[in-house]
Amino acid sequence: MAPSALDTLARAQKKASSSSGWFSSNTSKFEEAADLFQQAGNAFKLEKSWDSSGRAFDQEADCRLQANEKDDAINAYWNASKSYKKSTSLTSLPDAVNSLTHAITLLTQLGRFRQAADRQKEVGTILKETDLPAARDAMEKAGEWYSMEDANATANAILKEAADLSGSLGDYKRAIDTYNSVADWSLTSALTKYSVKEIWLKAGLCALAKEDVVLAKNLLEKWGQQDVTFPSTREARFLTSITNAVNDGDVEAFTAHVVEYDQVTKLDNWKTDILLRIKKFIGESDSLA
């Protein structure tokens, strides 16, 4: 009969805490213990004991480091995070972030920034459920590392997510700066140039949510110079119309422009939330209708 997960875990812990014999080294002791912790982690996975699995993989990683097996330690930490993410425990998500953070530290020490960015992106995704500012920061860091590795399309995709979070958090200047940075790069590629109008629309909405009509008008002028086709797009015309309505304090005109735009291009939740914030400061309303 195969040993149970608990039995294997006990053997691993015993091996890790044992003293080295005359004919063995600490390195070999920790290698053997790591193999046993890995077996325990996989056995707990089969039982769907996710927290126990995560802890076993974390202990495997610690032993791998003691044996100077950094690559295997990175993989163990990642396996730990995957187990924790499947758990329903209240502490499981912080544990997953902690394991990923250990993996990220090792990856950056080894100069493997593309893989570090992948793991950092996972951290951001996890934190979106519990800590939006930290999630935004993690995504910005991932985008920075992707850019360092010339993975610019991937970098800008995650930076757009970070900018969305900044907007949701009311950090409008940061959102605008990030959107503009992403748009500037997107303009350099025929494959991504089409997405710029959407990015600029979001940046413009953030300017209005910031209660800065002058900034919104200046941005519209700047973007029209960067891309002469932009002023004729639905996004630019919509942004111009609501900017004028905000400038005039005309709630009815603002609402009419929003309804008209939504009938053709359905507003997503992010835009709806920002537009409600804009409307609230010009008309104290909790509805876009």
Structure in words:
By secondary structure, this protein is mainly alpha-helical. Among the domains are: 1-18 and 25-110, Serine Threonine Protein Phosphatase 5, Tetratricopeptide repeat (Alpha Horseshoe); 202-289, no CATH class. It has helices at residues 5-17, 26-46, 50-66, 70-86, 92-109, 113-127, 132-148, 152-168, 172-186, 196-209, 213-226, 234-248, 251-264, 269-283. The longest helix has 21 residues, at 26-46. The chain is elongated and about 80 Å long. It starts with a helix and ends in a 6-residue tail after the last helix. The mean pLDDT is 93.
The CA-CA distance between the termini, in Å, is 68 Å
CATH architecture of the domain at 1-18 and 25-110: Alpha Horseshoe
Number of strands: 0
Helix content: over 70%
Order of helices and strands: HHHHHHHHHHHHHH
Major pleated sheet: none
CATH topology name of the domain at 1-18 and 25-110, in short, is: Serine Threonine Protein Phosphatase 5, Tetratricopeptide repeat
Return residue spans where pLDDT drops below 50 for at least 5 consecutive residues. none
Q: Please report which band the strand proportion falls in: under 5%, 5-15%, 15-25%, 25-35%, 35-45% or over 45%.
A: under 5%
Mean pLDDT: 93
What characteristic shape results from the CA principal axes? elongated
Radius of gyration: 25 Å
CATH class membership of the domain at 1-18 and 25-110: Mainly Alpha
CATH level-4 homologous superfamily of the domain at 1-18 and 25-110 = Tetratricopeptide repeat domain
